[in-house]
Prior knowledge:
The chain is an all-alpha fold. It has helices at residues 2-32, 37-49, 61-76, 81-89, 91-116, 120-127, 132-141, 147-169, 196-213, 219-233, 243-258, 269-297, 302-309, 314-323, 328-370.
Amino acid sequence: MKKWDLNNASKTIQFSAALLTAFIGGSLFSLVGLPIPWLLGPMAALLIASRFKNVKLIWPVSMRNTGLIIVGYSIGISFTKSSLSDMISHLPSMLILTTLIVLVCVGSAFVMSKYSGIDYPTSLTSSIPGGLSQIVVFAEEMKGIDITTVTFFHVTRVIMVVFLVPLLIFSPIFAAKSTNHSSDNVIPEWSGLFPLIFLFALICFLAAKIGKIIKLPAPYFLGPVIAVAAIGLFGLQGPPLPPSLLDISQFMVGGYIGLLLKPEQLDNKRKTLLLALMNGLILICATMFFSFLLTQYYDLSTITGFLSLAPGGMDQMGIIAQEVNADVTTVTSYQLFRMAFIYAAVPPLLRLVLKLSLRKKDKNSNVKTKC
């Protein structure tokens, strides 16, 4: 009993320390005026703090999931009948651009495997910009793929994207203006949430749980988005969230991401980190180029185009889109399509690559045996 109590007390201290560290990071980023402070601040603070050997911090996944439910709800209420028809008109470009992004991943993975010593199946699985948890689960199911390398590459890319994309958006390339959380410049207040928010909170919670049961990608984000959007299309609109609640949701997600990166689990840390950074940079540059092509054909802002194709998580790009007043329905639609496309098309491709790779290894081992 005493051992259990000590373990519980230790976890409470570690979580409290993580909360304090994350809050300090968010406050500093906010004070300095950096973009999306309550997402990037906790990320940066916990990423740095967790690198110290004697510092042990924890961030419950349930806290991250709660933050994602809030973000999912906020994006769900932005879907309208007109935005749905816009999504349908974008389907051809979604297919073409997603295919091009996957081809870039295939090419960069091939080059990386040639010069790094990482086998091609692992390299390709590490390069495909799908959801972190889904890709890792797939890698676990496939024999012959180095799960540690795959996880490290994806976590590094997510952190890179979440840090770099806001900085790029607020740079002269995109020249994002200061933003409001509401398109009509009326800032929602806490008093406007009640009592309807209780109904939507229950709906979002159930939608997230159902999404998890049916193995929906990013269920705690996508479940509420789909449920709230569907209810809105039938005429029941949820109340908009106040900026402070959106900041809290970003804090919940940012703290979790900050503790994801664990380079100590790798054998060749420097080399793998460099490769992961290069891989992430190639994807960011490629999607930026494709986003400029996208904005030439549709009446979209450059920011919306970039966030729609950026190789980050659908939930993180949704958070950033809200902060910079991009078209969140377009961003979510493109990100969702890419995720669905990758889950449908990439596993067969990876299985084929793995089969060919194993066949090549067997052939080489047979030749060596004969010699």
